[in-house]
Specification:
This protein is an alpha/beta fold. The protein contains 22 helices and eleven strands. It has a five-stranded parallel β-sheet with strand order 3-6-9-2-10, with helices on both faces. A two-stranded parallel ribbon has the order 1-11. Helix 19 crosses helix 20. The termini are far apart.
Length: 781
């Protein structure tokens, strides 16, 4: 009995269920009633056995002992939980106190930072005012003295005096830059001290946060382990319930009953096998008789066989209740399964004790897990609060230490670059020849341009100076459109910035940048930085060319609309708004802050040069843009030539404006009433019938273009010829009406009659190109 009490009932229960389902077929066998009575008697004896009763009482006592032990462990775990809870509450209070101290220190540091910054700024501004006043008084006195001494020789020594004034201005700018540098260094020192203290408090805070995170990770690990134990406990509990049910069905009486059934089945199987042997002997005898009675009649032999068949059927009915061979095989399998169940019963009884112990341990772990969950929840809430405070402190520090325009503030700290090369002091015609020779003499990358191309470029700078400030260089790829502004920059010291236009540009955000609310920064583009740098006082006398490369990859009216509008206002103060409201303490120095907005100042020293290829990948440039811009067509490449090796020179804005002003004051080179009369005759007689005409804007531009073109070595008729061909007749390239062909013939004859043969050659060439391309008529010369 002791050995059988350690067996496991699970697998035995599975096999016993199969055996129990087949038992009725066995009971139907003769003499099974006596076996059943013997089994019932044996079962009653087992139930009244004292040893079984004693074992049941022993198991009950063990259960009570286990419950008592579980209760004691539970009480101990609750006490431990209370102690740990008190410890965590004390640690949380300590963290709150230290956090309060950090916040108070942060407020004190911010106050000290504000006071120190205000004092430093006030002192630096006072010093700056004194330096400016002293420098101003010194310059005024020197200028007045020099004016009195050199008044009689001012015309002769004008160039030398301008150079001296430039040197003095550079010295003043250097003094101003030094004062700005001292101011910035003081502010940086104060910021560095504040930043050091902030980093110290931040480090302490991070250490406390790390400890808190470590505690949270430990709690999560404990919770994970407890959850795994609970899952195992639930599985073991179900397994135990199955064991209990199967143990009840696997008593000793059932085992004895099955053994008696197996013995009876073995007797029936042996009897059945003996009967089969007898039947086989009779079949053999029948076969012998059939061989002997070959002389018997067929009818008698059939009657004899039928009688034997009836006798065999009677005997088969007699043994019908005996088990078949299949049934005997099933009974043998049942016996084998019974032996396996007995072995597994012993194993399961041992596992039962082990599972009971694990259940007790899991019950205790379950309580600890619940406690850990409560603690982890409290720590998570505390961690969220600390994270929010940390983000608040970081945002406050970020907003106090960073500006919306970091790139523009960096430009404020730049020093003025001294010009390289000697000051250009020649005429506009000399400038054209100098630039042409300088480009051809470049040993690494020689550039070859005609005097006409350079002359038109300089005259276009003059024509766009009062308004628009926009030039468009268009034509075939490889003719040097992007290289022409770069050549001016290398030869005369212009600042040239290249901005690549993208096909995705749809508004001014891609060109100017935008205010990012998430980072509290303005996304500054290279274009914005270039325009801002040019507006700084130290660069205002430096000519800046901003090249919009492939400017018609996107619609110019979309991304350049702000500039097309404001630059049209002649001699106005050009402002482009970046953000509508700006109130930070640290502001870029050279933005305009009227009406509380931050606006970009477009200086008078800036020109926008757009390059354009007219193909399927580009957008159409509209008349709105063409009318405002100066057009330079570059459809052919200048042949190579040898240029004179020349040194680099420097041309500032003041000198260029002086040259333009001198050219405009040349009355012989300016447009006269007779010239306007001829152009008006061409307009009314030949252009207006083709729905094109001179506008007031083009007339104004022509007044500035013609004298500068003449000063660069051209003629007045050549200037009018170029302007009429490239600004007016360009509009006929998209006209295909038949009447336009007749008007073109009339226009060609009218130009020859009014201005003479061989004068308006570019217009004649343009007319013939349009006639050939649009109407397939005439010669394309």
């Amino acid at each position: 009995m002791a050995k059988k009490s350690r067996r496991s009932p699970i697998n035995y229960f599975k096999q016993n269920s199969t055996t129990s389902m087949q038992t009725p077929a066995v009971i139907s066998i003769p003499a099974a009633a006596s076996v059943q009575s013997n089994l019932d008697l044996a079962e009653q004896q087992l139930l009244t056995d004292e040893r079984i009763q004693a074992k049941l009482m022993e198991l009950e006592q063990e259960r009570l002992d286990m419950e008592e032990t579980y209760r004691q462990k539970t009480d101990g775990a609750e006490a431990e939980y209370e102690r740990r809870k008190r410890d965590l509450d004390e640690r949380a209070n300590t963290l709150d106190e230290r956090e309060t101290g950090v916040l108070e220190a942060e407020e004190v540091l911010n106050e000290h930072k504000r006071i120190a910054r205000d004092e430093a700024i006030a002192a630096i501004r006072a010093e700056e005012r004194e330096l400016r006043q002293a420098e101003y008084q010194r310059l005024i006195s020197e200028w007045e003295q020099e004016a009195q001494e050199k008044l009689s020789s001012l015309e002769r020594d004008l160039a030398n005096q301008r150079a001296q004034v430039d040197v003095e201005l550079c010295a003043a700018h250097d003094a101003l830059a030094q004062a700005e540098s001292e101011k910035v260094s003081r502010i940086h020192a104060a910021d560095k001290e504040i930043l050091g203290k902030y980093e110290q408090f931040t480090k302490e805070y991070q250490e406390l946060t790390g400890q808190l995170r470590q505690a949270i990770r430990e709690q999560l690990r404990l919770r994970s382990e407890v959850e795994i134990k609970i899952e195992e406990q639930e599985g073991d509990r179900e397994y135990l319930e199955q064991l209990k049910e199967k143990y009840k069905s696997c008593s000793e009486s059932e085992v004895l009953k099955l053994r008696e059934q197996v013995k009876s089945l073995e007797i029936y199987v042996q009897t059945y096998e003996e009967r089969i042997s007898e039947l086989r002997q009779q079949v053999a005898r029948y076969e012998v008789r059939e061989a002997v009675s070959n002389g018997q009649s067929a009818q008698a032999h059939i009657d004899e066989l039928e009688g034997r068949l009836r006798e065999a059927e009677d005997r088969l009915d007699e043994y019908a209740d005996m088990p078949s061979s299949t049934r005997i095989a099933e009974l043998q399998l049942c016996e084998t399964a019974l032996r396996q169940c007995q072995n597994e019963l012993d194993e399961l009884k041992g596992k039962y004790a082990e599972v009971q112990n694990r259940l007790n341990g899991a019950a205790l772990s379950h309580r600890e897990l619940e406690n850990a969950r409560v603690t982890a929840s409290a720590l998570e809430v505390l961690n969220d609060q600390l994270q929010k405070k940390l983000r608040y402190i970081s945002d406050q520090y970020k907003s106090a230490s960073e500006s919306k325009f970091p790139g523009l503030l960096a430009i404020d700290k730049e020093q003025a670059a001294r010009p390289s090369g000697k000051i250009f002091s020649g005429s506009l015609q000399a400038m054209v020849q100098y630039i042409r020779s300088y480009g051809a003499s470049n040993t690494k990358h020689p550039l070859f341009y005609s005097e006409e191309t350079i002359r038109v470029f300089v005259a276009s700078l003059a024509a766009s100076e009062p308004a628009s400030r926009l030039l468009i260089l268009q034509g075939l790829s490889g003719t040097g459109k992007s290289s022409l502004p770069r050549l001016f920059g290398e030869a005369l010291g212009f600042t040239v910035n290249l901005v690549s236009v993208q096909p995705s540009w749809r508004d001014n955000r891609e060109l100017l940048g935008y205010d990012n609310d998430f980072t509290n920064r303005f996304k500054e583009t290279e274009f914005t930085k270039c325009v801002y740098r040019a507006s700084a006082p130290i660069h205002q006398n430096q000519i800046t060319l901003i090249v919009l490369d492939e400017m018609n990859l996107a619609r110019i009216e979309y991304y350049f609309a702000d500039f097309l509008s404001i630059l049209e206002m002649r001699n106005a103060h050009w402002l482009v708004e970046l953000i509508p409201s700006y109130s930070e303490d640290e502001k870029p120095r050279y933005l305009n802050y009227d009406d509380e907005a931050a606006s970009l100042v477009v200086g008078k020293n800036v020109w926008f040069i757009g390059t354009a290829n007219n193909d399927d990948s580009t957008s159409l440039i509209t008349d709105k843009v063409y009318d405002r811009a100066q057009i330079l067509d570059m459809d052919s490449r200048e042949p190579d030539f040898t240029g004179e090796k020349l040194a680099q020179q420097y041309l500032d804005l003041t000198t260029l404006q002086t040259l333009f002003h001198k050219a405009r004051n040349d009355k012989d080179a300016c447009m006269k009433p007779d010239d306007w009369t001829k152009l008006t005759m061409i307009d009314k007689s030949f252009l207006q019938p083709m729905d094109i005409t001179f506008g007031n804007r083009i007339k104004t531009q022509l007044q500035d273009f013609v004298p500068v073109y003449v000063a660069c070595g051209g003629t007045k008729e050549g200037a009018m010829d170029y302007y009429l061909a490239h600004k007016i007749l360009r509009k006929l390239e998209e006209k295909y009406d038949a009447y336009v062909l007749r008007c073109l013939d009339d226009l060609e004859m009218g130009l020859i009659e009014i201005f003479g043969s061989g004068t308006f050659t570019q217009c004649i060439k343009k007319i013939r190109i349009i006639r050939k391309r649009n109407f397939n008529a005439g010669n394309n010369e």
